[in-house]
Design a protein that fits this description.
Blueprint (H helix, E strand, L loop, with lengths): L10 E7 L4 E7 L2 H4 L10 E3 L11 E9 L14 E7 L13 E7 L7 E10 L22 H8 L14 E3 L9 E3 L9 H60 L1
Length: 254
């Protein structure tokens, strides 16, 4: 008696909710539920009604994924299979180790197919029911803004307010239980302080001084050039007079 084995294609949907910062993975064993994603590309919007009853009314956007061997999907590669591309700095799926480095790497095309093991999705429209662990929770941001203008925008501050008093600090618990917890704060970028203003004034002063020095040097050079040209013209005139007088003397002697 022959034994027949049916291969079950298990897919993982990694769904992220950008509204509250949560993320959750769902394992789906039935291939018919994920067929709605087949032949779709990255950044396409797909309704989630056929995926399951808990996703009724939801709309997802495809953001990426990996095939069963772990190769990532790359936007712009319009094939449902794996290809080898010559990648350089600035391309996705590649990190340049040296300046000007290029390397041929295997990437998965951006068209969804049955060979994918993980598919990354983002919720665009929320449905009727809440999804436990995804839409009913809120994950606070671990780090606050670092740039001075972004801190002002977050707390609705004016330019007269001191941004350093509103920077978000986070508490760090040391691994050693004997040490006390402490707080850390980011270094504020593009912060205008009296020291930066003084440094800017100094740079402007140095630049003006250099421009004035360049103008004086150009004027001195022009004056010296004019004097040298005048001396050269006088020498040519003197040489011309000598030649003319010598020619007259030779004519008179004959």
């Amino acid at each position: 008696m022959a034994n027949y084995y049916v291969a079950v294609a298990r897919s993982t949907l990694n769904i992220a909710n950008l509204a509250n910062g949560s993320q959750k993975s769902f394992s789906i064993d039935d291939e018919r539920k994920v067929r709605v994603f087949y032949d779709k590309q990255i950044s396409d919007e797909v309704p989630g009604d056929t995926v399951g009853d808990e996703f009724k009314g939801y709309v997802f956007r495809i953001t990426g994924g990996n095939d069963k061997q772990g190769f990532p999907m790359k936007q712009g590669v319009l094939v449902p299979s794996r290809v080898r591309l010559l990648l350089s700095a600035g391309h996705s799926c590649f990190k340049a180790r040296r300046s000007g480095e290029r390397r041929r790497k295997s990437v998965r095309g951006c068209i969804v197919g049955p060979d994918l093991s993980v598919l990354s999705l983002v919720i665009i429209k929320q449905g009727e029911n809440e999804i436990p662990g995804l839409t009913d929770v809120s994950v606070p941001k671990r780090l606050g803004p670092k740039r001075a203008n972004n801190i002002r925008k977050l707390f609705n501050l004016s330019k007269e307010d001191d941004v350093r008093k509103f920077v978000i600090r986070r508490e760090v618990t040391p691994k050693n239980a004997d040490k006390k917890p402490y707080t850390k704060a980011p270094k504020i970028q593009r912060l205008v302080t009296p020291r930066t203003l003084m440094h800017k004034r100094r740079l402007v002063t140095v630049k003006k001084r250099q421009q004035e020095k360049s103008r004086e040097a150009a004027a001195e050079y022009a004056q010296l050039l004019a004097m040298r040209q005048k001396e050269q013209r006088e020498r040519k005139e003197e040489l011309r007079r000598r030649r003319s007088s010598a020619s007259r003397n030779s004519v008179s002697k004959q």
